[in-house]
């Protein structure tokens, strides 16, 4: 902004020359043009900041030139000059986007003052464009984070991300997300919202299982002051809060039957009434529902309305359990480890291979949420720079892992589990007791005592 480029467009040579010399004395880079065609050639090749433009020009009227400049070079500011100074031209010039206006003859210092004001305005405009650009970048990154939060490269999770991208664009389509607890149903709902045209409006999540019939209307529709005992002020309901945005209903299968009818009516009519109010309120809300239950089976048992199910299930996304996409466990574990390491200001560089091997054989009944909780606990316990099996709740994991390897007739007592675990660790460590002890997260002496306790014999020599 220190060396502004200024274009002077005037058919009178004396004005062009005098103004050009004056501006260059103040270290501005000045260009001159005697006609619009000459001016547009300069604009094509030079990054002009300010144009000083005469209204009376050959080829076309100065106001037409102004209009074209503001259309094709909207970042350029234009100062108009005229030998006539008629008020209608001034008004039209300002409406077309001129930043200032002078009548001939004018004082050069007045022009300089106008340029300095315009310079400050340009600086603010550039800053605003930078802020807007940064905001758009942050918004894009937030949107990417919402999608990148769906971590994994397995075929099943790629199917999910593909469905999310496709349905997000159709922002009026209701979506039903089906999956076990802990699979990330709310994460999927947020990804749909932040990739949709509704992304700049509110995303509101509601746990349907926590709603009672007495609270339903007040919570969903809101209420007017004095409509019932305790209604001391007006309350905005969830439908209004998420208007133009997305309302996410988790555990929709737990919604009481009586409330399903009221909910269906709102979805069909797209109108609500606050409790105690008479005026209807139009709503424009995208509904995303989620459940870990079989809604079709519930409809057969008459525990869920069939018409509501059809209304909610315009587009269904099935979320796989973690045990069905175990190839994603390493990537998820690394992501959660990095997340908690940053939160706890710990420098954790990696995860021991033995941890991945052990977790990959675990069934994860709590799915991704359980893995995340495991990672948090492990990071808290870790004093080194690598997560080890000792940082995880081995008894619960190993019991599940060993049980998967057993026949139905196997004894499930703790000694059997401990013995099996030691055998597996020793074999995995190529019969190196020090390495086996590290895998198990115990000392060398503790492992030696257990080997003697169970009278374990190995064909290969233990080192």
Query: Mean pLDDT, as a whole number?
Result: 82
Number of helices: 19
As residue ranges, the low-confidence spans are: 405-412
SS content category: alpha/beta
Could you estimate the helical fraction of the residues in percent? Answer: 40-55%
> CATH superfamily of the largest domain, called what?
P-loop containing nucleotide triphosphate hydrolases
Q: Main beta sheet: strand number and arrangement?
A: 5 strands, parallel
Proportion of β residues? 5-15%
CATH class wording of the largest domain: Alpha Beta
Strand order of the largest sheet: 2-1-3-4-5
CATH topology of the largest domain: Rossmann fold
Q: Radius of gyration from the CA trace?
A: 35 Å
How many beta-strand elements?
A: 16
Count of discrete domains: 3
Shape: flat
Task: Please name the CATH architecture of the largest domain.
Answer: 3-Layer(aba) Sandwich
Instruction: Note the gap between the termini.
Output: 74 Å
């Amino acid at each position: 902004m220190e060396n502004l480029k200024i274009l002077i467009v005037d058919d009178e040579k004396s004005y062009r020359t005098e103004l050009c010399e004056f501006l260059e004395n103040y270290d501005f880079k000045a260009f001159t043009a005697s006609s619009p065609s000459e001016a547009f050639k300069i604009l094509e090749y030079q990054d002009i900041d300010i144009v000083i433009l005469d209204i009376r020009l050959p080829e076309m009227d100065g106001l037409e030139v102004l209009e074209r400049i503001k259309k094709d070079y909207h970042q350029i500011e234009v100062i108009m000059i005229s030998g006539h100074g008629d008020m209608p031209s001034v008004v039209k010039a300002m409406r077309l986007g001129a930043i200032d206006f002078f009548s001939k003859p004018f004082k050069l210092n007045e022009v300089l003052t106008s340029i300095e004001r315009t310079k400050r305005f340009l600086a603010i405009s550039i800053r605003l464009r930078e802020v807007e650009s940064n905001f758009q970048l942050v918004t894009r990154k937030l949107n990417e984070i919402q999608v990148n939060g769906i971590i994994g490269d397995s075929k099943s999770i790629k199917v999910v991300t593909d469905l999310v991208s496709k349905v997000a664009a159709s922002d009026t389509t209701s979506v039903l997300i089906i999956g076990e607890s802990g699979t990330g149903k709310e994460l999927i709902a947020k990804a749909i919202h932040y990739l949709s045209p509704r992304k700049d409006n509110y995303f509101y999540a509601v746990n349907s299982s926590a709603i009672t019939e007495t609270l339903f209307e007040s919570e969903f529709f809101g209420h007017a002051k004095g409509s019932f005992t305790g209604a001391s002020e007006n309350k905005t309901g969830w439908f209004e809060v998420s208007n133009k945005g997305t309302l996410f209903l988790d555990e929709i299968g737990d919604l009481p039957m009586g409330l399903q009818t009221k909910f269906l009516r709102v979805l069909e009519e797209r109108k609500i009434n606050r409790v105690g109010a008479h005026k209807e309120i139009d709503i424009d809300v995208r509904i995303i529902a989620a459940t870990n239950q079989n809604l079709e089976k519930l409809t057969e048992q008459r525990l869920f309305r069939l018409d509501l199910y059809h209304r909610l299930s315009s587009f269904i996304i099935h979320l796989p359990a973690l045990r069905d996409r175990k190839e994603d466990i390493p990537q998820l574990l690394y992501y959660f480890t990095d997340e908690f390491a940053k939160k706890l200001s710990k420098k954790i560089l990696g995860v021991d291979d033995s941890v991945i091997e052990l977790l990959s054989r675990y069934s994860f009944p709590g799915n991704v949420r359980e893995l995340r909780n495991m990672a948090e606990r492990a990071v808290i316990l870790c004093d080194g720079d690598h997560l080890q099996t000792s940082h995880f709740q081995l008894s619960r994991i190993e019991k599940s892992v060993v049980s998967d390897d057993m026949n139905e007739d196997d004894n499930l007592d703790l000694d059997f589990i401990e013995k099996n675990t030691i055998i597996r660790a020793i074999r995995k460590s190529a019969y190196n007791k020090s390495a086996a002890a590290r895998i198990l997260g115990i000392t060398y002496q503790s492992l030696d005592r257990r080997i003697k306790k169970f009278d374990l014999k190995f064909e290969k020599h233990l080192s």
